[in-house]
């Protein structure tokens, strides 16, 4: 390679190392600012605060004392029995002590306020939010992305500590200066100055590599608490369907009208319940009863709960004009595939069943925590069935804080190991000069 090409390669390598070091320094400064100013990030994976803070937003929050809370503030409240909840303050009253307040809150997208007030001494006030940034955080938390960053950092470490000859000898030109043999700057022709310059460069490399490792270690665990996760024994406020779909299934003597929002069912918001409605119309030619059953299959880790109501007419929300009959109180949905009876109709009766579904959980569900409900209506001469589709919770977000640390240590260690091996090999291949003989 010509000295010009080597100079370009050295410039590119230095630029990459400097940029990575700057990124590491920014990460360290952000962590220090978060610690000193009591600011953190909250990632919204639910739509309870839409449209003010839509799903997928990343919000900056700052801890404040309870006496500073004002009605209208959007705050995050920490709880001992569940993950934090982020909603808008609707009222503030005096608490058990001068430093405490009792507040009530409500999500902007929720139809009703939170079930219970909160007694707090500190909260985290939302200072601002940017939509869509939560997806970036999730992307950086992906093991493939972290692995790629680790490989890049390892390559930089290897380059920084690769054995070289600053004089432009057999080891090649210094990637730091891009200077080839016979073109050594005058300032570095003195051996002492050259040695001092090499030490300074090596120390600069050590600092830069340390900052690269810091960037990799800090970038991973940026993911933060999500909004509004709690455990509900009674159903939380039902969410207004965004994209309801209707399906009609007609048999010989039975008809099913199925209404539900598949998007909400696929991402069960832990801050609200979803409604699945099935109308059963019987017109059996043969006299006899029509039986309606429900079976659940899937992963019990979703911890799906339900209330089953019925009405002679179609429901509007949770309401029905002729009157609502409670078929099943709030209870966990059995996930064993066994059909269980809901109701029995006459051969000419029509009835609508409303299934209110929610998660009874204080943790984000795993990606494979899914459930499907199957409703089966059958009489003496006909049988029809329908399924709810895939019911699943919000996937787990973030990464274990230990993982990025291991990536950082592994990247630096691998880079140093490769560079050390290259140095050993270079020294082994360097011929040992023969001792000079003095004349008698």
TrEMBL record:
Its EC number is 3.4.21.89. InterPro entries: Peptidase_S26, Peptidase_S26B. GO terms for biological process: signal peptide processing. One of its GO terms (cellular component) is membrane. The chain crosses the membrane at residues 12-37, 203-232, 401-420. Residues 168-197 are annotated as: Disordered. Keywords: Hydrolase, Membrane, Transmembrane, Transmembrane helix. The keyword Oxidoreductase does not apply. Coiled coil: none annotated. GO terms for molecular function: serine-type endopeptidase activity; signal peptidase activity. This is Signal peptidase I. It comes from Cryobacterium roopkundense.
């Amino acid at each position: 390679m010509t000295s010009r090409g080597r100079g370009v390669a050295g410039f590119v390598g230095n630029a990459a190392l400097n940029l990575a070091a700057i990124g590491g320094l920014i990460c360290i400064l952000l962590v220090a600012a978060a610690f000193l100013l009591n600011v953190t990030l909250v990632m919204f994976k639910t739509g309870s605060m839409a449209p003010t803070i839509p799903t997928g937003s990343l919000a900056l929050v700052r801890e404040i004392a309870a006496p500073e809370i004002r009605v209208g503030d959007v705050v995050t409240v920490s709880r001992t029995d569940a993950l934090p909840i982020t909603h808008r303050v609707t009222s503030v009253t005096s608490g058990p002590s001068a430093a405490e307040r009792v507040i009530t809150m409500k999500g902007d997208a929720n139809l009703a306020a939170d079930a219970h007030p909160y007694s707090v001494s500190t909260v985290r006030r939302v200072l601002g939010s940017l939509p869509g940034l939560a997806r970036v955080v999730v992307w950086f938390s992906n093991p493939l992305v972290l692995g790629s960053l680790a490989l890049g950092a390892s390559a930089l470490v290897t380059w920084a500590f690769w054995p070289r000859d600053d004089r432009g000898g057999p080891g090649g030109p210094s990637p730091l200066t891009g200077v080839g043999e016979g073109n050594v700057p005058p300032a570095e022709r003195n051996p002492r100055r050259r040695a001092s310059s090499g030490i300074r460069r090596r120390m600069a490399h050590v600092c830069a590599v340390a900052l690269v490792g810091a960037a990799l270690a800090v970038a991973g665990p940026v993911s933060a608490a999500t909004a509004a996760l709690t455990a509900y024994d009674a159903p939380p406020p039902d969410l207004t369907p965004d994209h309801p779909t209707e399906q009609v299934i007609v048999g010989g003597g039975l008809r099913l009208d199925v209404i539900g929002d598949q998007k909400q069912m696929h991402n069960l918001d832990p801050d609200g319940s979803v409604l699945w409605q099935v109308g059963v119309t019987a017109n059996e030619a043969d006299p006899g009863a029509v039986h309606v059953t429900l079976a659940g299959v899937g992963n019990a880790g979703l911890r799906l709960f339900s209330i089953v109501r019925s009405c002679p007419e179609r429901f509007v929300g949770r309401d029905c004009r002729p009157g609502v009959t409670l078929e099943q109180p709030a209870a966990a949905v059995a996930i064993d595939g066994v059909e269980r009876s809901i109701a029995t109709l006459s051969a000419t009766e029509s009835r609508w069943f409303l299934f209110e579904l929610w998660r009874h959980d204080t943790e984000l569900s795993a990606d494979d925590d899914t459930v499907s409900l199957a409703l089966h209506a059958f009489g003496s001469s006909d049988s029809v069935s329908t399924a709810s589709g895939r019911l699943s919770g919000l996937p787990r977000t973030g990464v274990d804080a230990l993982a990025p640390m291991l990536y950082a240590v592994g990247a630096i260690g691998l880079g140093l190991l490769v560079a050390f091996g290259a140095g050993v090999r270079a020294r082994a291949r360097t011929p040992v000069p023969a001792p000079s003989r003095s004349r008698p």
